[in-house]
Write a structure and sequence with these properties.
alpha+beta, SH3 type barrels, 2 domains, two-stranded antiparallel ribbon, 8 strands, about 40% helix
Length: about 230
């Protein structure tokens, strides 16, 4: 089966299942899909049933939904289209990182494979999109990165912001205003375990950046060796 054999809706569901599984660790429920796509649960159930009959997902009654091998391959093709489109909009057309998602949703269904490969080449074959999400290669390969949730970090950890969930443009704008973007380095000065607000230092002491833990849960980081973000 090829992407062209699927409706735009089916393509969206496969992409949704993959992107949700990246953050949940694999298991995705129909209710999570409904929330992510802002659809009625009954509509989601109908589409999942069709994808199951097509051999693209496995769904245990009242249980989670997982992609089959064929479904995974098609989902990765859609993810590649979406993330390359986001990167194209940001790098070539000057979109802000909180603006790219919606227009990339439209572009991903319209661009041909030839155009997609031209975009990939023009961008220098990027591995990450503007939010730090990995861009699958043309054969479905993904960059090998081991990231950890920001909320799991301890006081004194020196970290680099590596991946930020792009579900809410308002959250992205807020994070951007704080300098919390992929590639930025910080030291954790308070985990927020009691207050619910983490403190991150990027410069001199006394200039800590507050970040609510519920927002921090949508951020993945890499440890930074050597000097910390405050030069210590």
């Amino acid at each position: 089966m090829n992407l062209e054999d699927l409706t735009d809706s089916a393509q969206n569901y496969l992409k949704c299942l993959w992107t949700l599984s990246e953050w949940t660790g694999g298991a995705v429920t129909p209710s999570e899909v409904a929330r992510h796509l802002d659809l009625r649960p009954s509509s989601v159930s109908d589409q999942i049933r069709r994808l199951t009959l097509a051999g693209l997902v496995d769904h245990a009654p009242y249980g989670s939904v997982t992609l089959t091998e064929e479904g995974r391959a098609l989902a990765l093709q859609m993810v590649r289209r979406h993330r390359l489109a986001e990167t194209f909009l940001a790098e070539m057309l000057g979109y802000e990182w909180d603006e790219v998602h919606e227009d990339a949703d439209r572009l991903e269904h319209a661009i041909s494979e030839r155009m997609l490969e031209r975009i990939d080449a023009a961008l220098g074959h990027p591995e990450l999109d503007p939010h730090g999400d990995p861009i699958p290669s043309s054969d479905g390969g993904l960059p090998d990165r081991i990231l950890r949730p920001l909320v799991d970090c301890s006081v004194g950890d020196h970290i680099q912001m590596s991946r930020i969930r792009d579900a809410d443009p308002a959250v992205l704008r807020h994070l951007g205003s704080l300098g919390i973007v992929p590639g930025a380095e910080f030291a954790v000065t308070d985990t927020g375990a009691t207050s619910g607000v983490m403190l991150l230092r990027s410069g001199a002491p006394g200039h800590d950046v507050p970040l609510a833990r519920d927002i921090a849960a949508s951020i993945r980081v890499l440890p930074v060796s050597g000097q910390g973000a405050d030069g210590a």
